[in-house]
Automatic annotation (TrEMBL):
Organism: Achromobacter aloeverae
Alphabetized SUPFAM superfamilies for the sequence: Periplasmic binding protein-like II, Winged helix' DNA-binding domain
Protein name: LysR family transcriptional regulator
Family that this chain belongs to: Belongs to the LysR transcriptional regulatory family.
Pfam families documented for this protein: HTH_1, LysR_substrate
Length: 292
């Protein structure tokens, strides 16, 4: 570079203060050193930047034009410096986060809200990911961490449970089952059931519970997303067994949520790669996630 950043800094200081003496005080550098830098700058650029008039430095027309460009550049360099210091202190940057749909509207949405309020300069990239794709998202480093509604088994993942939840029963408001304080799986056996597809974890979990209770499932509709189950319940297509987190995160005034007599437990978990060297942003998010 014929015009280095140090030369720009010295030139700007002289233009701001109007003298080598003033620039030396601004930059905490000796006057002879700055004089040499100014002379070298004029020589390498082939420009006369200052005229000496009665012991004062008077900028040339070329210097005035150059100063406008240098000042613009200097302001950008300051922003980069602030950004770098923010990265060092963990106050800026990006957090890439994946989450099971069941947790996205409630607990994770609340944590993201708390996170962006506390760290407004950290941008959050948030995506919903099904359990069968979560390992790839984390191990390919597309996301810094993932929050799964159920634990994931993988040799290269570090999975930590942070919460406990349950499946619940959802019925139309005024339904005959709504009179019960708790609904058993046997109670559900006599009604058309809207259930998650048996090929997905929720479906397997509920089918296993019915099998353990010795109750046959009368499935009328198989679904893949819990909000679809709730829409079908509202329309009167049947009753459903869904996760409590989705129900807590959405307002359904015309359906009733009832606890199940049998526990079908959920263990939401924090998912990170075992190769993860650590992300301060992810650590900050997890700290907020774990808060009661």
């Amino acid at each position: 570079m014929r015009f280095s950043l140090r030369q720009m800094e010295v030139f700007r200081a002289v233009m701001l203060t109007g003298s080598i003496k003033g620039a030396s005080k601004l930059l905490f550098t000796s006057q002879p050193a700055l004089s040499r830098i100014v002379a070298h700058t004029e020589n390498t650029l082939g420009l006369a930047l200052f005229r000496r008039v009665k012991g004062k430095l008077v900028p040339t027309v070329e210097a005035e034009a150059l100063y406008r460009e240098v000042n613009h550049c200097y302001e950008h360099v300051l922003r980069i410096d602030e950004f770098a210091r923010g990265l060092a202190s963990g106050q800026s940057g990006t957090l890439n986060l994946a989450c099971s749909p069941a947790l996205s509207r409630g607990v994770v949405a609340a944590t993201i809200t708390a996170f962006v309020r506390e760290y407004p300069n950290i941008q959050v990239n948030f995506v919903q990911t099904l359990l069968n794709g979560m390992a790839q998202e984390v191990l390919s480093k597309k996301v810094d961490l993932a929050i799964s509604v159920l634990p994931i088994e993988h040799p290269n993942l570090r999975v930590e449970t942070f919460l406990e939840g349950r499946m619940v029963c959802v019925v139309p408001r005024g339904h005959v089952l709504a009179r019960k304080r708790r609904v058993s799986l046997a109670d559900l056996g006599g009604h058309p059931l809207i259930a998650h597809h048996p090929n997905i974890p929720f479906g397997q979990l509920v089918a296993s519970a019915f099998d353990k209770a010795g109750v046959a499932m009368r499935v009328s509709v198989h679904i893949h997303q819990t909000d679809m189950a709730c829409s079908l319940v509202r329309a009167g297509a049947g009753v459903a067994v869904v996760d409590e987190f989705t129900m807590a995160g959405m307002a359904w005034p015309d359906v009733q949520v009832l606890p199940l007599a049998e526990d079908i437990l959920l263990y939401p978990s924090i998912v990170r790669s075992v190769f993860d060297t650590g992300s301060s942003h992810a650590d900050k998010f997890i700290e907020l996630l774990r808060k009661p």
